[in-house]
TrEMBL record:
Residues 49-226 form the Pseudouridine synthase RsuA/RluA-like domain. GO terms for biological process: enzyme-directed rRNA pseudouridine synthesis. This is Pseudouridine synthase RsuA/RluA-like domain-containing protein. Pfam families: PseudoU_synth_2. GO terms for molecular function: pseudouridine synthase activity; RNA binding. InterPro entries: PsdUridine_synth_cat_dom_sf (IPR020103), PsdUridine_synth_RsuA/RluA (IPR006145), RluA_PseudoU_synthase (IPR050188). Belongs to the pseudouridine synthase RluA family.
Length: 294
């Protein structure tokens, strides 16, 4: 074990998950365990068939590999709040429609029964579901050939990183077209990116962006932003070892799902923007490029 890895293990502000990413917190591990409870789960929308919550960052949905070291998973917290929706026959106890990485906060839709899960799956499969994310990324992003709404479309495949199978992903070539030999089984991946603001985070140039994934590959947004040379602030898997950042700055901001195509019925939710200077004083915007108006 290197000195740098050993020092991270000893750091009171680092939570380590075996074979997963490093997850930082502004709390010690002991305090992190204390602060996560059922009241940590903000309900954005609840209907007869769907529950949309504002997922806290640094929290797995359920314990996939029995390696998470905090006392609770997201589904355990949801079970405490809504025990009557828990189904022990299901993995994690709840139906899953889509996923958020452990490091990502924001909108997460939980179907409350098999029927609603099937409706949700059909919406995603047919393109009748839209997800929008917010991120703070390093550098001042420059995008050419944006559409009328200010979005730049990035169409770059994503595959498994042979050096870190199951834990990291990559593109088959870099921004200059050079082939990446360790990328295997690449699949089509498309993301739309819109610049919102330029500013600084802890005195480093940063950009606030809005991202709309068109496809749903694992780690897609994180890999695409790294491909552009603008990794997400705090993303130690794909970016820089900036353990001073208390979280990975990626947030599921808005979710729209059409649940009835004939009557054009939607379920919609928006999770409050956490990347505001009044919430995080280290983020200092200096130039507005596009308004956040979705």
């Amino acid at each position: 074990m290197t000195n740098s890895v050993y020092s991270r293990l000893l750091s009171p502000n680092v939570v380590y998950l075996k074979n997963v990413d490093w997850y930082r917190s502004q709390y010690t591990l002991k305090n992190l365990q204390k602060c996560l409870n059922a009241d940590s789960i903000q309900i954005l929308l609840k209907t007869k068939h769907f529950l949309i919550i504002n997922k806290p960052y640094d929290l797995v949905l359920y314990d996939y590999h029995k390696t998470f070291r905090t006392t609770k998973t997201l589904f355990e917290l949801v079970k405490e709040k809504f025990p009557y929706y828990f189904d022990p026959r299901l993995t994690g106890g709840f139906h899953v429609l889509h996923r958020l990485d452990a490091v990502t906060s924001g909108c997460l839709c939980i179907p409350l029964n098999y029927f609603s899960q099937r409706i949700g799956f059909e919406a995603f499969k047919s393109g009748n579901a839209d997800k929008y994310y917010l991120a703070l990324v390093y550098g001042h992003v420059k995008l050419d050939h944006v559409d009328k709404d200010g979005f730049y479309e990035l169409n770059v495949p994503i595959g498994e990183d042979q050096r870190r199978l199951k834990y990291a992903r990559c593109t088959p070539y870099d921004l200059n077209g050079n082939k990446i030999e360790f990328c295997i089984e690449p699949e089509k991946a498309i993301s739309k990116i819109k610049i919102l603001e330029y500013g600084t985070y802890k005195s480093r140039d940063c950009t606030k962006v809005l991202i709309k994934p068109i496809t749903g590959r694992r780690h897609q947004l994180r890999v695409h932003l790294k491909y552009l040379g603008h990794p997400i602030v705090g993303d130690t898997c794909y970016g820089i070892d900036d353990f001073d950042s208390y979280r990975t700055m990626l947030h599921s901001y808005r979710l729209n799902i059409q649940i009835n195509t004939k009557q054009r019925q939607f379920i919609k939710a928006k999770a409050p923007d956490p990347f505001l200077p009044e919430i995080d004083s280290d983020w200092k915007p200096c130039k507005l490029v596009n308004n956040l108006n979705i």
